[in-house]
Design a protein that fits this description.
This protein has 11 helices and 15 strands. The chain has about 350 residues and is an alpha+beta fold. It has 2 domains: about 1-115, no CATH class; about 120-345, no CATH class. Helix 5 crosses helix 8 (about 240-250). The longest helix has about 35 residues, at about 175-210. The chain is globular, with a radius of gyration of 25 Å.
């Protein structure tokens, strides 16, 4: 197909063959997804061409690229383009694919590498923590440590509204509209960078101190239907935080969120309460603690029951498959546990 197109359209010869193949692969993948949705009785439209301003990435796969160092300068060579000076955050090895992405007026190279990982990881159940994420507090863990939620969109909401009004007043396809659009994009990029910086710092802190982290399995897509809380939920970045923890921490386990805030962490008694009530007070055992702290303790208990039987929480170490980081449906089936001398630990 590409060979015939190159004979008809001479300008296609100015682009590397692997890059053109990846474009065809994207179109074919999108078409298959649309056909699958149509067969499942979903109401969908048709594929549209992407405009020049909206097409912001291209991919080199397997060949057509290399990274070199000339003196103190790092250079990226791309076939049909040439040498480009880049700033490397680390020196990659075994490069399989490079995607060039444009964000506003900046260009980034996303490098995909093949890295050898250990087949098994040793974890210590004693070094585990439960986390309850929220809006007022970003998280409250089972060690009674809290981290405030910065809510970067809320802090910059006034500037965003002003930039959005300027954009809406400009004429379409005018240079002034393009400038206003760029200003708005810069504000969103600043918010994104601040949020990612915050999430990376928090995730690094916990991944260094704990082997296992237990989180609630939250349905964010359903939670954002509450328009009173939707903006703050999206601004918190819970899903991004979970994804970052998944590749930094040895093991991240999601537990069902049923009654984590209702059940008493000490006696198990159910204490119903509204979102406005921030203190958990049990009328059976007289436990009175923060509701988020109570929820994090329940999350940890549920996670430990999924990871190990109740009588073997103190058995260490635990050996798990490195591929069992994502527990989506049945965590117990994905974990291979090997106990070292169980008789000695009992």
């Amino acid at each position: 197909m590409l060979t015939e197109l190159k004979e008809e359209e001479a300008w296609l010869r100015n682009y590397h063959s692997k890059m053109l193949q990846m474009v065809v692969h994207k179109i074919d993948s999108n078409r298959k997804v649309l056909n699958a949705l149509r067969m499942n009785d979903y109401k969908i439209g048709k594929m549209n061409f992407i405009g020049e301003e909206d097409y912001n990435s291209f991919t080199y796969s397997q060949s057509g690229f290399r990274i070199e160092r000339h003196g103190n300068t790092d250079l990226l060579w791309l076939s049909k383009i040439g040498y480009i000076e880049i700033r490397l955050h680390r020196h990659p090895t075994n490069i399989k694919q490079i995607t060039i992405v444009r964000r506003i007026n900046k260009w980034y190279a996303l490098i995909c590498c093949e890295i050898a990982k250990p087949i098994f990881r040793f974890i210590n159940p004693k070094k585990s923590v439960g986390m309850d994420v929220g809006i007022t507090k970003f998280l409250h863990d089972s060690n009674n440590s809290t981290i405030d939620n910065p809510l970067f969109v809320k802090k910059m909401l006034k500037s965003l509204r002003r930039a959005q009004r300027r954009l809406s007043r400009r004429h379409k396809y005018s240079k002034n509209r393009l400038k206003a659009k760029t200003r708005l994009q810069i504000l969103h990029e600043r918010i994104r960078n601040k949020r990612l910086d915050f999430l990376h710092k928090v995730s690094t802190r916990y991944s260094k101190n704990y082997d296992v982290i237990f989180l609630e399995r939250l349905r964010v897509s359903s939670m954002v239907k509450n328009y009173h809380l939707a903006r703050n939920i999206i601004d918190s970045g819970w899903s991004t935080f979970k994804n970052i923890l998944a590749y930094k921490t040895k093991l991240v386990i999601e537990v069902p969120s049923n009654n984590t805030s209702v059940n008493c962490s000490k006696c198990g008694n159910k204490v119903p309460k509204s979102l406005a009530v921030r203190i958990h007070k049990c009328n059976v055992c007289n436990l009175m603690i923060d509701r988020d702290y109570n929820a994090s303790l329940n999350i940890k208990k549920k996670g430990l029951l999924l990871l190990l039987p109740q009588g073997l929480w103190e058995a260490t170490p635990v050996e798990i498959l490195s591929e069992s980081v994502k527990q989506e449906q049945n965590i117990v089936q994905r974990i291979v546990v090997h106990y070292r001398s169980i008789e000695e630990t009992v």
